[in-house]
Amino acid sequence: MTHDGRPAREALDTLAAELTGMAEADHRAAPGAHSEDPAEQLAWRRLTARHGDRLARIMDEFGWPTAELVGEDAARAAWLVAQHADRQLDVQRRALGLLEEAVARGAAGARELAFLRDRVLVNDGYEQVCGTQIAGVKDGAPVPWPCREPGRVDELRAEAGIEPYAEYVARFS
User: Fold this and answer.
1) E-only strand ranges, the chain
2) What percent of the chain shows pLDDT beyond 90?
3) For 2, left (φ over 0), alpha (ψ -120 to 50), or beta?
4) DSSP-based helix, strand, coil % in the chain, nearest 5
């Protein structure tokens, strides 16, 4: 800590490197979109659980790791870790609350907030808002989890800085 109570730059640089390393490990270990390999699935679940545990400790110490605190790449990595903490809903909900506060202060982006909010809503059994979470594929086309206001999805996505739904799902086809 510095004399004014802020974390030392070296500690923040180390934290940034750790977060980006976690995101890189996540990408390497993530099962393919249609992988049914149980060993691959289990390894990824274990990795995301370790990362979720670590993110909980990071949030205890630093709050939400904003770009101002750790840099753009590390802040995005923190969001990815929260997004993939599906079996640790307490961690996801806490990350969502801290990210909401950061967005309200102008310290984080609405796009990441929309994705994490939808993820938490779906994981809690509710309808999502922006249609960011895909339930599966039917007739070769991605199908979103149910949305609160399906007729307004593109409008709500635009407000959050997310491309229209059709463009988004075209990447999955």
Assistant:
1) 134-138, 141-144
2) 75
3) beta
4) 60, 5, 30
Inter-residue contact 65 to 13 (CB < 8 Å): no
Is residue 66 over pLDDT 90? Answer: yes
**159: its two tokens:** 């407000």
Tell me how far apart the terminal alpha carbons of the chain are, to the nearest angstrom. 48
Phi and psi at 143, nearest 5°, equal -120, 125
| 3-class DSSP assignment, residue 30 | coil
Question: How high is the pLDDT of residue 157?
Answer: 97
pTM, rounded to two decimals: 0.90
CB of 92 closer than 8 Å to CB of 123: yes
Residues 109-142 pLDDT 10s: 999 999 999 999 999 999 999 999 999 888 888 8
Query: If you ran DSSP here, which 8-state letter would residue 164 be given?
Result: -
Phi (first) and psi of residue 136, to 5 degrees:
170, -165
Contact of 59 with 94, CB cutoff 8 Å: yes
Compute the C-alpha angle 128/134/138, nearest 5°. 125
Dist CA 4 CA 68 (whole Å): 17
